[in-house]
Design goal:
The chain has 590 residues and is α/β, with parallel strands linked by helices. 47% of the residues lie in helices and 15% in strands. The chain has 21 helices and 16 strands. The strands form four sheets. A six-stranded mixed β-sheet has the order 1-16-15-4-5-8. Strands 9, 10, 11, 12, 13 and 14 form a six-stranded antiparallel β-sheet that branches. Strand 9 and strand 10 form a beta hairpin. Helix 4 crosses helix 12, helix 12 crosses helix 14 and helix 17 packs antiparallel against helix 20. 39% of the residues are buried.
Length: 590
Amino acid sequence: MSSSQSNLAPSAPTATSLTANSRQTEAEPTEAREPLVSEYRELRAPTQSLGTLIDPPLCDAELLLKNNLATAQAEMPAGAFWADLRNEAREQLVNDARRYTSSYRDVASFCADQPNHTGENNSRPIVMAGHQPTLFHPGVWFKNHTLQKIANDCCALPINLVIDNDVATTRSIRVPQLQPLANLAGDDSHQQRQGSWQSIPYDAGGETLPFEQAQIRDTERFNHFDAGVRRLIAPLVKNPCVTELWKHAREAIARCGIAGCALAQARHALEAEMNWQTLEIPLGVAVRGRPFARFVMEIIDQIERFRTVYNDSADHYRAWHGIRSSAHPVPNLGLQDGWFEMPLWVYGNSQPQRRGIWVRREGDQWRISDAPSGPSQSGLGGGAVSLTVSANDRDLAATQLMEAASPEFKLRPRALMTTMFARLVLSDLFLHGIGGGKYDQLADRIMAQFFEVTPPGLQVVSGTIRLPGQEIDESREGRRRDLQRKERELQFQGEKWLNDANSAQRDLQARKLELLEKMPTSGSRRTWHHEISRLNSLIAMQLTDQRRETQQQLAHLEREAATEKILCSRELSFCLFPLEFLQESFAKMA
């Protein structure tokens, strides 16, 4: 290990007391930190095949991690609340991630600790990424590859967070298809093939529930999903990695009975065969226990100020980007009759739908409910969840909140709350995709102003990989413009396309050019226009075949473009690609 790598591990636990900061604000106001950037970064998916978006660049990952560690150590001194929370949370995280991962793949090669230069053990920095448990596109999987690479380069511990509290909106993937055009249009164009989509489900449809609650509905369909995918993609790909993936998926669905869980475990088991050494943990597991409850209580105890910062930050983001919808990127937190909305979800086995959480101070207690109704009968409705925790002792309240967890009370963070907890508490460097990278610039603003700490730097990672043999035809747009110009000229300047060898066309051309040379300035202009229009009509009749051929060529290009859009989509599931092809692509990209 190089000296630069060994220096990544902090020499002491790093933390700042959020409690101390917030209490200091009450007695001695401090200036809230602004985010490190003065404007929002523009993040766009790469258009070129094997193109990447890595921001900051991959070569800066080690420096970014070092800066995060140094900033945390400077702003979050050892022995304070924040240090204790981070240490407790990380110990729980690593233990739970090792235990969870070991249920379906070997983790013997993992070591949460490493010897430092003094010969003592010291916790490795944690590099983290996360995504929903879906059959996502290869650009998302490239983020997992990059997670592994950065961790190796920096002697850090890589952990992937499975975001299983998001709603499982679909249980299928789209597979591109090619069909002979003659079968669709009934013409002679049997050589051109038209692209289309066909969806293939891995489970029966049903209620939209969080991934961790979406139990498998049709095991038979799930178990035969790979055969259907192979059949549909066979004309384009001979050896899709769905074969290797689904061997693990069938084992996983028998273990957990949850489709999202099975997909994530199957993908991670396949990564083990690729020698990717990462730990994995569902968000629902990572937020169990006291650390997350304590983080929640830090916000609840200052909910009025938090709501102001959260809503002002969301308003600022919308105004900056010209977003009119009040629901994007996140809706503002509500306030009704003393009840404050929290950026949290709650659900349970008997009521698996996600519901919002509201809190209200009642004397020396905080009341927490999913849909409370106050004394004034505010109309929020009676909720299925209602509990109280201490309003005078945050540690006691965190214990009470933790002990309330049960199969019927699963408290989960919403999107921004998830990344704030992951970045401030669980990890030292977080890798986002494009969507998360955009919205977490809003989280930066909230963290800086509410917690009064410098937001840890993040890295945005994504890439574009297309099916083998499928590339965008860069020349098509130029050919389309040429044909469109020709079509206009055939209509209004047909004399340019008349055949001199044809006497009738030669006469029409000569007459048109003669009229153009003798364009009147006034007086007889109407007669001249009438004659020009008559000649254009006669010329157009002579050019009917050319115009029809040009229109057919344009239509051909449009069909080609539509098919290319399907076959070259960057959104195709990774399971449609050959595994060796993906591994080679990842290696070229980073």
